[in-house]
Model the fold of this input.
Amino acid sequence: MRGRGRGPSPLPEGALRIWRTLGAAFVLLVFVPPLVLLVSGSLTEPGLPPSPTPQLVPEPVATVGYQQAVELGGLLRASLNSVLVAVVAVPLSVLVASLAGFAMARLAPRTTATVLAASLVALMVPATALLVPRFAIFRMLGLTDTLVPLVAPALVGTSPLYVLVYYLAFRALPAELYDACLVEDLSPVRTWWRMALPMVRPVTAGLTALTFVLTWSNFLDPLVYVYDRDLFTLPLALRSLSVLDPTNFPVFLAGAVVATAPALVVFVLAQRRFLHTPDRNGR
Done:
């Protein structure tokens, strides 16, 4: 008799769908009620006394809060600045992190261990500990009060976490794929772009969504580096609306809806990819 055992069988398709449905229901129960209250509060007419209890359908329904949020907080200009920062920083960060993770996956084992340890040490350094030296560097270069300091972290992949995630993803690919690329005489860059990166699309989708949310909601860096009101991003514009009196709180909620909507759209677009289960053909 052969003593070779079988590995654990994958979950049946029906059980997998049930777990996905339960997970989706849990996410809806946690995140949908606050979003509903946020939208309903933004549709309340400004200037009225705050309601003692939340109202799902305010009476009367008014959209004047959005108009006042744009006028008082400068949300239109701030949205354009946030879009500009995200359009540059997010793709650049993902590309740099994926390229660095691919390089780590192809290094010699001893060199990989050294680089991996250095990455873990860098990951444990608090971001606030780097504010002073980064501010001194950008001020010396004359880049303060510009959007450059908000985009510059993307040149190093934004966070060592992104590099480590890509490293694990590329390391999990079969070695035969890399050997086939060597047989085809593909350069390391072409191997990364044509073979490795398409194979980890769910990871790319997840990190793209995460990078966008963190970049879009970044408040500390604009607060430190940006002083001109015309260069404010959405978090700074919302800060100016947060000081309104309670009767104008719907104006702040309207601004919060404007700031939250793009992140939700990106998450919805990305979730189909990073929750995707490959079929037998690997698609």
Remarks:
- The domain at 29-47+57-274 is CATH 1.10.3720.10 (MetI-like fold).
- The chain has one domain: 29-47+57-274.
